[in-house]
Amino acid sequence: MGELSGKGIGVAVLDTGAFPHIDFEDRIWAFQDFIHGREQPYDDNGHGTHVLGILGGSGGASGGRHRGTAFGCGLIPVKVLDERGNGNKDKVIQALKWIEENMERYHIRIVNISVGTTQKEGHEDLIEAVEEAWDRGLVVVAAAGNMGPGRGSVTAPGSSRKIITVGSSDMLVQNQGISGRGPTRDCIRKPDIVAPGNEIISCSNKRGACPYTRKSGTSMSTPFVSGGIALLLEKEPWLTNLDIKKRLRATAKDLGYPHNLQGWGLFQLKRFLKSSNV
Fold first, then answer.
1. Were both Cys, which of 3, 98, 107, 118 would link to 10 (CB 3.0–4.6 Å)?
2. Comparing C-alpha atoms, which of 117, 168, 177, 188 is closest to residue 150?
């Protein structure tokens, strides 16, 4: 097998949409808009386009310099957030149902959720929805949120026991310590894993001379992990979401922080793809 690119693997991204960036080539397999009901891909905020670039941008506009992790995967952007990056959980729940109904049609194996609610309670139905998607066999990967560094600051749905929750390895402590941490209200240890999230260069939603921009947060860490999972599923398509979660745990690098800060540790892409024993 040649270089892994995530070819054939569909990744649904719940976010602000997708600017039709050159780096996405013809790999936007479907677009669904739960905010304005538009049919053509667009992103009036920029957050979703940035996340998609980290996940699966080809690096075409930069001569390959700013290439995403799974640069050959299928992208299914689902717009659940408006131009200010705001949304409500009902839209997210609707989006998850749409993904379940269309997972076979668009070969969706992974759901990337770089959004989270800061409400302390009243999000049980959101947790239920992501867990139902997980039970359907989807690999659901969600951001830990940027409400840290206090205890219990992981946002929902990242607070779900079942799904994979990602914090930022370079935003855990000191002034940049915004990465959400556990334990959750139900005493679940979170996040599960951490990846870089500070000052990440990725696709911009602007036309013209600046095809890339920098953003920071656990939203940027999450697609690194989702992209790595897409590569693994290209290589070993029979793996279940539980297999993947176990392999993340087995191959993470312990950074020496408590579990409720770093999870199992730093996501190690090469080890994750190489390891066959979990």
1. 107
2. 177
**Does a cis peptide bond (omega within 30 degrees of 0) precede residue 41?**
no
CATH of the domain at 65: 3.40.50.200
Half-sphere exposure of 266 (CA within 13 A, CB side): 14
For residue 153, give both structure tokens: 């600051």
- Residue 95 lies inside a defined structural domain of this protein: yes
15 within domain boundaries: yes
Catalytic residues: 15, 47, 219
Q: What pLDDT is stored for residue 231 in this prediction? A: 98
Q: What is the pLDDT of residue 226?
A: 98
The span from the CA of 172 to the CA of 77, in Å, is: 28
pLDDT tens, residue by residue, 97-156: 999 999 999 999 999 998 887 666 778 999 999 999 999 999 999 999 999 888 999 999
Tokens of 206: 């602007």
| φ/ψ (deg, to 5) at 125 | -70, -30
5 located within any domain: no
- According to DSSP, the β-strands at 108-113 and 10-15 are parallel
Rounded to whole angstroms, the Cα distance separating 154 from 39 reads: 33
The pairing of beta strand 200-203 with beta strand 212-215? antiparallel
142 with 130: CB under 8 angstroms? Answer: yes
Q: How many domains does the chain have?
A: 1
User: Can you give the pLDDT at residue 149?
Assistant: 86
**If DSSP states are collapsed to H, E and C, what string results for 54-105?**
HHHCCCHHHCCCCCCCCCCCEEEEEECCCCCCCCCHHHHHHHHHHHHHHCCC
- Which structural domain, as residue segments, surrounds residue 111? 10-270
**pTM listed for this prediction:** 0.96
pLDDT score of 261? 94
Q: Residue 116: its pLDDT value, please?
A: 81
Residue 125 lies in a domain: yes
